[in-house]
Amino acid sequence: MFKLERTHGVHAEGVKKREHVTKAALASLRLALKAYFNTYYICSEKRLVSSMSITTSDPLYDISMGQIDRLCENVDYQEQYMQTIFHFHHFFELFLKDILSRVHVNLANKIMLDGKDSSKILKILLNTGDVDITQNQTAEFAVALDRVCTLSKRADGSVPIVVKTIIDYKNTLKDLNTLRNKAWHKGIYILRITELDQFISQNILPLLVRVLKTTEYGDLEDYWKYKKVEFDPIDEIISAGSSGVVDYKRIAFFKSYGRACYSIPKLNYDLLDIQAKAKAIVGSVNDLELETCYVCREETLLVSTVSDHEIDYEGKLLGAWWNTTAAECLNCSLSVFPDAGEPKDYGVKKEVLWKSGDYEYET
User: What is d(CA 305, CA 206) in angstroms, rounded to the nearest whole number?
Assistant: First the structure.
């Protein structure tokens, strides 16, 4: 049986020349975004994307809300939800401690004063110079948040600019900590997908954008962000949540877009083979069309078409029709369905993706 010893494992290196950047925070940010983007596919599979936008005056409102409530019992949704909350929480926890350690080497440590961890540590560390501290544990999320906010009271020029942003979003970070604790310790508290979209688009992502602009984390996108494309899904999702009414369909579309951005090959040595494969599949399988993908811009997007017909009681054909039902890119793994709306509605694609028509037949 394996027994963990001090000699086991390797201490992962940090970001070069960035003393106050924790590399694990960047990994968690990447995982959080991927998990959040994945929630689109679970909602689409359950046919809930359209239901999320139904107003209270709609006759189907209660039925739709019931379906959304039941999604919280779905294991796949719970998995992506928890990864989203846990990893955003982990990112911000490490980020807060990096702010503290930047001000004083021991400020992020967990220190016992009179039997408990106290905010008095700020006065001890910041007013009396170096302090001999032997604890090797760091402060918990809530303690670190309070310490960062307390830094704003100092007037000696040692307060990082980002502290003002943390204070502005203190309630958001408290809510994130609450959501993490309720899911982590009790395992029974899950936000509805509509609530999650609202929280991420209106609170978490705007906070993320602001803190990245004013810290050493700002120019480290290669560690956590998807490949740069024409439309930034983070910005688009923030925009979808910035108005009085959250545009859930727009958020759904850009979640599928964001997931594909993470899958665009950085060095696509196999592009010619992938393009050849796409053409071969379309040439051998009925009801498939080949188009240029609006994410990676390669001619590798397979668009599926289904057809149906209607006959009378004598078996006579009354009509036949077709419509496109799904699109999947062999290069960047984009997978999207009509419930997310037309890409051209969001300025992403000029041509119509979701098409339909009637077959001509002789009477």
Answer: 38
Predicted pLDDT of residue 135: 59
Give bridge partners of residue 138 from the DSSP assignment: 109
- Gap between the Cα atoms of 136 and 119, Å rounded: 18
DSSP string of 236-274, one letter each residue: HHHHHHSSSS--HHHHHHHHHHHHHHHHS-SS-TTHHHH
Q: Which two tokens stand for residue 130?
A: 């170096």
The pTM score is 0.90
- Three-state secondary structure string covering 189-202: CCCCHHHHHHHHHH
For 225-261, what is each residue's pLDDT tens digit?
998 899 999 999 999 998 778 999 999 999 999 999 9
| The predicted structure's pLDDT at residue 337 | 94
Helix residue ranges per DSSP H, 54-187: 61-71, 75-103, 121-127, 141-150, 162-168, 170-181
pLDDT tens, 31-42?
A: 999 999 999 999
Which value, to the nearest 10 degrees, does the dihedral of the CA atoms of residues 77, 79, 85, 91 take? -140
C-alpha separations of 69 from 96, 186, 234 in Å: 34, 19, 26
